[in-house]
Design goal:
alpha/beta, Aspartate Aminotransferase, domain 1, Aspartate Aminotransferase, domain 2, seven-stranded mixed beta sheet, binds pyridoxal-5'-phosphate
């Protein structure tokens, strides 16, 4: 049987591969999963139960409940300084869908999208699905995975339609500065490019820094699709809920995709999301405090292991660990840690070629597991030498 040829371009996920191998193994310490270990906060779960009892069990408007889009627009204006109207907000079934709709709305065959390497695996696959061509923009370990503008400029061709930015970044933990984002914004304006800004980790930024949205810069709202979510901020991965802000004409085209695919995001999840953004944000701060403590313990522990080094992530709950001194490849070391130490990590190469020499550890896991994991990794690395 002949299948869609775009699907042939999709490589099996390097993350999945490790998880499959870990299946059935007992007494594992997992740094693998990229999702909060917390259960969704009580008041959000209660709002969902109430919504069900009140009969929020029907289709919603394609782009989301009007009161939800209104509340999201207020949040985007106040917190992110992006001046959008509710009509410019689209509610989606997760950030993954928001990304897909963005690529699909924008791309024609042959259009290029610049994506970070290393970067979140889904970008490349989705660009292929939408008929576009991904172009890798190298982020270098020696710059702590911050962008080099000259290198970015060299990726731009006459076919470039958009640049995908992800700050704070999965897997590197880099959070781009306002200056870096301003320089990219200027390039986007000069070259007439769209920016797709994946800001799923906006609430997990360390050292007292504030998250900065590129669409808040002058002239950028019109050419940016800003994507935010509930998965990471409110520990709501399973609810499948996110939203994006984009200019009204783009939203009108994107609406056709919603109408003819998912129809709308889950009605109960939308009501829960409304409660999440309209209630106290203490739960977000509490989870952040836990990540911050875990980050400090993990980074200190990793840097005490001879052969490993790790720059403290500026955002997210990922440590991207330099393993070059071990003499092993990223995949070899991840396999070794799984087989010999019962520790699950993800090889950096799962996120692109530039991830060679690195492994990703998610610290969205308990402090006890982090301490035990460090102990096991230390022993394992010592045994290599
Ligand atoms: C950078 C980044 N963007 C988007 C997503 C998608 O999140 P979701 O589809 O759960 O909202 C993830 C999930 O891991 C991510 O790491």
């Amino acid at each position: 049987m002949e299948f869609n040829s775009n699907l042939k371009k999709i490589k099996p996920s390097g993350i999945r591969k490790l998880f499959d191998l870990a299946q059935g193994k007992k007494d594992l310490v997992s740094f693998g999963i990229g999702e909060p270990d917390f259960i969704t906060p009580t008041h959000i779960r209660e709002a969902a139960k109430k919504a069900m009892d009140e009969g929020y069990t029907h289709y919603t408007p394609n782009l989301g409940f009007p009161e939800f889009r209104e509340a999201l627009a207020i949040k985007l204006n106040q917190k992110n300084k992006i001046s959008v109207t509710p009509e410019e907000v689209v509610v989606t079934s997760g950030g993954t869908e928001a990304l897909f709709f963005s690529f699909y709305t924008l791309l024609n065959p042959g259009d290029e999208v610049i994506i970070p390497d290393p970067g979140f695996v889904t970008y490349e696959s989705q660009i292929y699905f939408a008929g576009g061509t991904p172009v890798n923009f190298t982020l270098r370990g020696e710059n702590n995975f911050h962008p080099d503008l000259e290198e970015l400029k060299n990726c731009v061709t006459s076919k470039t339609k958009a640049i995908l930015l992800n700050s704070p970044s999965n897997p590197t933990g880099a959070a781009f500065s306002e200056d870096e984002l301003s320089a990219i914004a200027q390039l986007a304006q000069e070259k007439n490019l769209i920016v797709i800004s994946d800001e799923l980790y906006e609430d997990i930024v360390y050292n007292g820094r504030e998250h900065f949205s590129i669409a808040s810069l002058p002239g950028m709202k019109e050419r940016t699709i800003s994507i935010f979510g509930f998965s990471k901020s409110y520990a709501m991965t399973g609810w499948r809920l996110a939203y994006l802000a984009a200019e009204a004409n783009l939203v009108k085209e994107m609406a056709k995709l919603l109408q003819n695919t998912a129809v709308c995001a889950n009605s109960v999840a939308q009501r829960a999301g409304l409660a999440a953004i309209q209630s106290s944000q203490d739960c977000v701060k509490e989870m952040f405090t836990a990540y911050n403590e875990r980050r400090n313990v993990l980074i200190k522990g990793l840097n005490e292991i001879k052969g490993l080094s790790c720059h403290a992530p500026e955002g997210t709950f990922y440590a991207f660990v330099n393993i070059k001194e071990t003499g092993m490849s990223a995949e070899e070391l991840s396999m070794y840690l799984l087989e010999e130490c019962k520790v699950v990590t993800v090889p950096g190469t799962a996120f692109g070629k530039q991830g060679e020499g690195y492994i990703r550890l998610s610290f969205a896991t308990s402090l006890e597991d982090i301490k035990e994991g460090i102990r096991r990794i230390k022993k394992g690395i010592e045994n290599i030498k």
